[in-house]
Amino acid sequence: MRAALLLIGSLLFLQGTTFGQAQRRVMLESFTQASCPPCAAQNPGFNQLVFNNWDKAVLLKYQTSWPGYDPMNEQNPDEVQTRVDYYGVTGVPNVRIDGALDAGVSGNVTAAQINNAYNVPTPLEMELTHQMSADLDSIFIQGKIRNVSDTEFGPANTVLHVAIMEQEVIFPEPPGSTDEVDFYSVMRKMLPSANGAPLAPIAAGDSLEFGFSVPLPDYIYNYAQVGAVAFVQTNGSRQVHQAAISEAPGTLEGYADVAMELASQGPGGLCEYELTPAVEITNATATEVTEMEVTVSVNGGAPISQSWSGSLAQGQSVTITFEQQTVSPGATEVSFNLASVNGSIDINRLNQLITSQTFYTLSDTPVGTEIIQGFETTPNLGIPANTLLIKDADLEFGVVNQSYLQGIGATVPGPVGGFGASAKSIMVDFWRWAEEGDQASMIFEKTDLSTSAAPVLAFEHAYAQYPNFSDRLTISVSENCGDTWTTVWNKAGSQLATTPPVQPFFVPNASQWVADTIDLSAFAEAAELLVRFTATSDYGNNLFIDNINLFSTLSSTDEPGLLEGKVFAYPNPAGELVNIDFQLVEGSRLDISIFDISGKLVQTLVGGEQYPAGAHKVLWQPQQSGLFLIRLATEHGAVTKRMTVVR
């Protein structure tokens, strides 16, 4: 249904009107956010101030897109942004009083400011009412603006704003990163748009009626809390001349309200695959529940429906269980939908906010004998091959490249792969990940190290602290499919940092990377080893990870022999020249070969030449950037060194 604006240009002439001034209703427009710590600290006091002056003021809150996550903004970001731009709001919380007065943060608003605005005369009176359709899919808003003065009201560029709002949105859990759960007079939709509708001049003593008949947004949380707000504003001066509210009913007799709790029995471990979907439904109101239809969908597949009939009084519960399924390795999302209650919709979604859960499993069979992952073939924010990503949102842990970062407004000095040598890497977006203590993990599928004589885990990372905030990267391994884990690398804050702290959104240049190596020789005979990278947020700055490789420095036939502890390759990372220093205990024929990380021979530096006992140096001039293996082999054994080259 298209929005219908009714009678906006029709003037109804009233006889015998007494000319004078009307009582103003003060318009308070509040810009706030669910993940804004100052908002959470100041809004309770501001809300109470508004409640204390409810007969004098009209409140409308816009949930902005910054500084963190806010589901109310994500449901209608464009109209909020239009009002942000209209006032030039640059920080939250922020309150505008009757449009023209920037009152600053919500904690600074006073009763005196409200009273001062309330006592300013206005030529306009305004009435506003609303109703909803029986099936709650539409709203009908009617209003009247009356000019009670003895002169025409017609300031140039004056508009009528009408907004659908939810008067109380009380979340069961904080929707953002603060502890704020109570939100009031939240703007949900503006009519006909966030720019308002042009208002025709109103002659002295005359009235103008307006009306909207529109579908309700499908993201309404609680239909019993749906109301409407209207105000007349002159663009340019931004002065609001009058405001009105049609309050939410608070209750809707005869409609059901049930709570949903997820009750699925999922796989007991990463290598178990049986799943039984189930939900527990509780009647939250005095309206008896006699029938329900619930659907479940696995990984976005066709919904499976199950009907229930019976009798649920207030507070009583029932568990609806679906047929057991066998899931495949990977992430399995199970989503539920309450299709109907008593043949209609449920009026309150706030007790059904969590409707899906994800279960994670891995293949029971090792996928190879090594890990070679540079992320170059992984789409932005995609899942790298042979990995499992356990995270809450794409922002937290994902593959990115230069164009992606530029697209979100970041300053990017060049390619974002390790040492600037490749296009892609993993970014852990601590800068926007405000939920301190939350974790995201990347787990590699099982690797068979039973024939690896000396396994090494190598990777590269770049990280800058946000001053005084310490994010963490932990690397752990498991030999029993994740039943237990052993930490092999754990750094946070300044220990993790590869460059001094910075406040802007961090994207590394080529010189801000370091190469890391972890000795996994203690797991050399593991027939199945899981490797897990876990990021823990402290709401700091970004971490980048690239070129994760698990390989053996000695093959099953290699032995250190004459070279044990006597081979050095430097600098690492290197540029135009690599020094290879080694010492032979006794004379031997020698091979020195360069391989790329896939095992392909790149160059032979020494080919079977006889070297005497003692110290020696060989120079290598790399021709391209990348990760390489330098292998020195004598008649009695061999040693392999890892080298990162940045050209």
List key phrases describing it.
single chain, 647 residues, mainly beta, Immunoglobulin-like, Jelly Rolls, six-stranded antiparallel β-sheet, five-stranded antiparallel β-sheet, 6 helices, 41 strands, 44% strand, elongated
Structural overview:
With 647 residues, the chain is mainly beta. It folds into 4 domains: 243 residues, Immunoglobulin-like, CATH 2.60.40.10; 104 residues, Immunoglobulins (Immunoglobulin-like, Sandwich), CATH 2.60.40; 182 residues, Jelly Rolls; 85 residues, Immunoglobulin-like (Sandwich). It has 6 helices and 41 strands. The longest helix is centred in the first third of the chain and has 16 residues. The radius of gyration is 33 Å and the shape is elongated. The N terminus is likely disordered.
Summarize it.
With about 650 residues, the chain is mainly beta.
Helical content (DSSP H or I, runs of 4+): under 10%
How many strand units?
41
Main pleated sheet:
6 strands, antiparallel
Weakly predicted, low-confidence segments? 1-18, 555-559
Number of helices: 6
